[in-house]
Write a structure and sequence with these properties.
Blueprint (H helix, E strand, L loop, with lengths): L2 E4 L4 H5 L4 E3 L3 E5 L7 E5 L5 E7 L5 E7 L8 H14 L15 E6 L8 E6 L2 E6 L2 H5 L1 H10 L4 E5 L4 H5 L7 E6 L6 E5 L2 E5 L14 H8 L6 E5 L5 H8 L4 E6 L2 H16 L7 E5 L2 H11 L3 E6 L11 H17 L1 E11 L6 H15 L3 E8 L17 E7 L2
């Protein structure tokens, strides 16, 4: 097996079970490892620390799979990691998440489940996967096999992600059926009284934002009697939760006409299922421009949701991204009535919770609004964060109240 030797002192991160080894930590390579192949990771003195997958074109040169010289990753080893991740998401009485009708759940969450670059979401038993790193692609067949053995109806590939370019991976064949049954055009999942139609072929990420499940419920609890503006609404998520929570009205704002059309269908399902109907609007526009228009019109709301896409992939992009976050929060704060609620989120992993607080604080100062933090949110519990991998804590949110 090819070996990767670390520079003096760089073994500490591996000993602390951090899964990433950056190019600057590599002293030398013994052999000629191919892209995605398993390599032995060695300290400067030659002691084997564990094993990982080689990514020669990425800044993250090795992603760890095991932290023991005796645990050499094999196909069966990878399958066991997938099985263990699914078992951790079973109910208290042992029912597999794949066996629960109309459930949307993350089954495998990358590094935090010991499988760097691998994402697997289940929508009513259809698994949608992403293989975002060279090692993940190398073990693709084993991951698919483990999901089918666990009871998946089928496995659909949505590896059309930008990170594959940085890994030197092909963009061909990244979308399509890998095993089992072809997924429905729209798969129905439930969150309490809310029913969502999910388009796994064309939707964002694997089709839906499962990581905001608990935040949706949390924000919906503030909605009773309020006029709600749901920005970056996608297929309705937070707006549906607010309508189910008794909102006076909901406006869904998004740049995608296709997403808003599906949102409209989701609201029809909600009201058709017995939730009292409220006025609902759908506005297809750039969020920044529309918020400025509302400001100029003197329009106000009682609850505003800001759930934008990722503004920063890397730390190098963070300063520019911070300006975007500040501007959009400032605009939203100016549209809030006294006592209004702003639920604001960042899914940029490069932005820490502390920095996000600072950005929102500066926005409030410039907007001349007194805001209180009444709650914090994070990604849903099926998107865990390994203590050894703080980078996995990518999603953060604040629920803010306008004092005046």
């Amino acid at each position: 097996m090819d070996k990767v030797f670390l520079r003096k002192g760089r073994e500490r991160s591996v000993e602390r079970r951090h899964p990433w080894i950056f190019s600057g930590a590599v002293e030398r390579v013994e052999g000629v490892p191919s892209i995605g192949s398993t390599v032995a990771v060695c300290a400067f003195n030659g002691a084997v620390l564990g094993y990982g997958c080689w990514s020669p074109q990425s800044q993250i040169r090795v992603r760890m799979l095991s932290y023991s010289p005796d645990a050499v990753p094999s196909g069966e080893y990878v399958k066991s990691l997938v099985s263990a991740a699914i078992e951790r998401r079973a109910s208290a009485d042992g029912v597999s998440p794949l066996a629960v009708a109309n459930r949307g759940v993350r089954l495998v969450h990358g590094e935090s489940d010991g499988l760097p670059g691998v994402v697997a979401d289940s929508y009513d038993g259809w698994c949608v996967v992403q293989f975002a790193s060279a090692g993940a692609e190398r073990f693709r067949n084993e991951v698919v096999s483990a999901l089918m053995e666990a009871g998946a109806k089928g496995v659909f590939n949505r590896s059309d992600v930008d990170s594959r370019k940085r890994e030197g991976l092909s963009e061909e064949g990244t979308v399509g059926v890998l095993a089992g049954a072809e997924p429905l055009d729209f798969i129905e999942i439930h969150e309490g009284a809310i029913r969502y139609l999910v388009d796994v072929r064309n939707g964002h990420k694997t089709g839906f934002y499962l990581d905001q499940r608990e935040a949706r419920a949390q924000v919906g609890a503030y909605a009773a009697g309020r006029e709600v503006l749901n920005c970056f609404s996608y297929t309705g998520g937070f707006g549906l939760a607010c309508a189910a929570g008794g909102a006076k009205s909901v406006v869904n704002l998004d740049l995608s006409k296709t997403a808003l059309q599906l949102a409209e269908r989701n609201f029809d399902l909600l009201f058709g299922g017995g939730v009292p109907r409220c006025p609902v609007g759908f506005c297809c526009a750039d969020v920044f421009k529309q918020l400025r228009l509302y400001r100029d019109q003197g329009r106000q709301f009682d609850l505003i949701v800001l759930d934008p896409p990722k503004f920063a992939d890397t730390k190098a992009q963070l300063i520019r991204a911070a300006r975007g976050y500040k501007d959009i929060n400032l605009l939203a704060m100016k549209l809030l009535r006294p006592g209004g609620i702003l639920a604001t989120f960042s899914c940029s992993g490069a932005m820490t919770a502390e920095f996000f607080d600072t950005v929102c604080r500066e926005a409030a100062c410039d907007a001349k609004r007194d805001m209180q933090i009444v709650a914090r949110t994070r990604q849903a519990s099926d998107h865990p964060t390994a203590l050894s991998f703080p980078e996995g804590e990518y999603l953060k949110g604040l629920v803010l109240k306008a004092v005046k």
